[in-house]
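Follow-up to my post from last week.
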Amino acid sequence: MIDLDDRERTIDQRARLAAAGLQRAVAQRPMRNVPERTPQRYGLMIGAVCVMLLVVSGLYGIAQRDGGVADDPDAPVVWTIGGLPSTWPVGSVRRETGDPSNSQNGTDFAVYGTPAAPEGPVIVLDRATGFDRQPADRIGVQGIVETTAGDRALVLGDDAAGRRLAWVQIGQRWIAFVGSGVADQSMSSFAAALTLDPAGVPSIAAAAVPDAMTLLASGPYPAVAPTLWVGLLGQDGVEPTVTLDFVDAATEQGVALSQTRTIGADLAVLSVFVSSRQQVTVAGGPAWSVAMDEMGLRAIVWRRNDTTLLLASSTMTADQLVALADTVRPARADELSEDGEATGATALPETEQPASTDAPQGTDPSPDTLPDASPPAGAIAVDSDFTPTRTERSPNEVTLSGQLAGKPTFAIDFLSVAGQVQVSPHLSATDRSLGTWYVDPTSTEQPIMTFGTDGAAPIAVVTDDPLAASLQIVSSAGQRYTLTLTAASAHPDIRFTGMVLSGAHLVSATLLDADGRPIGPVLTRP
Amino acid sequence: VFAGDDPHEVASFAITGAAVDFDRFYASTARRTLAVAYALTGSWADAEDLVQDAYADAHRRWDRVGTYDDPAAWVRRAVTNRSASRWRRLGREVRALTRVSARAARTTSEPEVQDAQFWSAVATLPGRQRAVVVLIYVDDLSIEQAATRLGCAEGTVKTHLSRARLALHALLDDERTGPQR
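User reply:
Got it. Predicted complex:
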């Protein structure tokens, strides 16, 4: 019989040989060539700098002329913030179109958010995007739905055709959304999740499809030809149709659906969206859900009223996406179970529960249940079996508490201190028969997180994942749950190894049972 | 040393900090990162996805990441972390893709990996064990360095490594001998 050392030694030798073989294979493998994309990337960077300069000059000009208008009719439309906001709501947006005759000049709109800098957020709507071609006096801009740490913003409005427009700013980048019946919360969450460059924004014209939602984005990522696939399904009761807008990063031109892309270097492009999708789902509002087709391919389905947006898996080809879209039709309210799951003939085939970092399952898509665009106030309980409460005492201090029916009552304090989040779990059982509950410090199920060993609050939590962490909750009787916490963005003051679950960034929590099944989604921050 | 991985380049990153050009950084470190990702996932496609995501993140935060002593370690850590969550969905996606791949044109030739069976076995290990194996054998880190990378004690790394070796031995032995009745 081989003793332990021999077995380990055998594997050690084999591992070293395998590693050497892997090195050779990698050396032979063609790598995506970053320098080849450099000109494009630099071009976009230069463009971004130009936009920034325009913003600065525009702001300066506006400030200097005390409400006047720009002299250059080709200047970008600049939205400026009235006042120096500090919290929700933060002030107003003043629109300067650059056109002296435009009646929208000087019009103020409400702004919500928490700008990081006194001068921000600033919304720039470039004429090249096509937005400004909309009849300005018929666009009802509702304001910035969310601005966190100055790194994103969302402006919503309805154009003359009744389509909801949404502009998302991430850093200096913009993404345009056009759709009908866009839920503010969903868009906001989606916006928070996306980190794509809006180089494809000019193709917003492609969104001029009634009852359509289009998301086009691309960006100068390294080794990436950013591409985004969007499946669009038709109205309820109408045979689903699919519209794909494909923006080729190299040409920044839309590519017709009929142009089948081969699986090659561009395939990985889509994985940018996978990352985004992962964040999208965890931050998803009630209108979002995760579904998988019968093949196990994943998709995000946004549904509200009669519109369904299908966001495809990165692993899909165009043909696969079309095939999946054909299997998915919008779920009507009467086809949803009480917990929001789609049922019946139009239900999305479900093969497995989503991973803990994915979205909670869809909930009631009724417009009545959708949070409005006002700032979040406390918790949004969406499941009768799990009623959490989120209390934000300060931007860096938040308590998530709740009671799981027949299960323990818990309260978890998150306090961001000096780049690290301290988590203070308090678990108790109102019913003594439920025993004692505690956060399991020994769990190895979630290696991204470790706990202190003393169990005393606060427990410092360290996670390598900048966007998600999990708490293993276990009772003395062995009942086990996982509370998955996700954030919309990394804490700006925390390095990648640090924590992100500060109050301002914690966006959702999902409780999973011992089998990994979600027990009701929790939306902690719209 | 991996092709494209120039140790002098890495050293220069440490010296020049934020001035490091991202393209040079990518070109000089991507292959090794890809090897790490492959070892974690057992799949070129998934490895490239992981690598791309990690570098995309690094690119977005390059102002900061570029100032780190070892930006490549940042990227590889990101790859390791991402692989943990990615693995959960990998199984069914692989199965699905296996089915649909017959319809997809194969446009790239995949280099064969010597002893791919070994990496397939590695990919089935629990996340921490898998990470330790990859860090030790592929990223060529010492126990101490791996502990630092993973943010745990050296003893923990040793434990995971030992368990991983035993698990791999069992896995590979089972595959060699077939199921025992």
